[in-house]
Amino acid sequence: MQFSIQLYAGFDASGPPGLGLAVTPKAGSTMDELWFWGLAITAAALVGLGKGGVPIVGMLSVPLMALVMNPVMAAGVLLPVYFVSDMFGLGAYRHEFDRRVLAVFLPGAVVGIGIGWATASLVSEAAVTLLVGVIGLAFVLNLTLRKPVARSAKRAEAGPGLFWGTVTGFTSFVSHAGAPPYQVYTLPLGMTKAVFAGTSTIAFTVINAVKLVPYYALGQLNPGNLKMAAILSVPAALAVFAGVRLVKVMPEKLFFRLVTWALLLISLKLVWDGVAGLI
Fold first, then answer.
1. What is the C-alpha to C-alpha distance for residues 71 and 13, in angstroms, rounded to an integer?
2. Pairwise CA distance, residues 179 & 266, whole Å
3. H helices of 94-218, where?
4. CA 62 to CA 67: how far, in whole Å?
């Protein structure tokens, strides 16, 4: 079941009421609208769970929405949902984060977003998607095949932080796929699960806030997108609290194991999508 969807600045009754979203299901049935909203709400809830600290699940939101709309439109709709969810995540983790990691990582991320904006018309999204997937796969393979060592906290070094921050900002801007390069940098630092989740939440809050400017300039934040984002922000906000609860009760070893395996699965998906886009 596929949809032809167009977002625009005006308003029309041909799609879900009052959203500025023209949805034309091929079958033209109520079930088609239920399918659309079911996927949209699920995608928003995954964003919220991710902002609550559950590993990687937020990266599934754009691919899920892309089942019923253009991926570029899906990214534009979901960015405000990410930002609203970030605000709730900040409240949950405002006391648990690593200041040094943020200090050396975020300047690079802002530079990476700027590079993504400047090259928006030149860079192939498929090529970036493939690159992100390959980086994630290489990291997971290295992590799982090498001899296990005792986890201990490590100092965040400025050079790697700036480099991986730039990669994260760029890939997050182009394809909302900033998590793999971010985790390549942060997983080896040996943070506790709460500090890891809090640092991740704050880092991507800043990244998403900065991305609002170029997304607006590129026309991605039109009234239709914002109206739909406002509705989807409700399930996303509720899911943040569920995510925080899951992180608190989840054993630490299981938490990082899930992070690693989720990174593997997402990286495989990104490689598949990247290759398919380049063929």
1. 23
2. 10
3. 99-118, 125-145, 158-175, 179-186, 193-217
4. 9
Helix (H) or strand (E) holding 25: strand 21-25
Chain-centre distance of CA 55, in angstroms? 11
Sign, CA torsion 32/38/40/43: negative
**∠160-181-195 over CA atoms, to 5°?**
80
Closest CA relative to residue 232, chosen from 24, 57, 27, 65: 65
Could you tell me the pTM of the whole model? 0.73
What is the C-alpha separation between 173 and 171, in angstroms, rounded?
Answer: 5
Exposure of 79 by Cβ count < 10 A (0-12 exposed, 13-18 middle, 19+ buried)? Answer: buried
How confident is the model over 113-169, as pLDDT tens digits? 999 899 877 877 778 778 777 877 887 787 677 655 445 678 889 999 999 999 999
Helix, strand, coil % (nearest 5) of the chain?
75, 5, 25
Q: Which amino acid is at 144?
A: T
264 vs 270: CA distance, rounded Å: 10
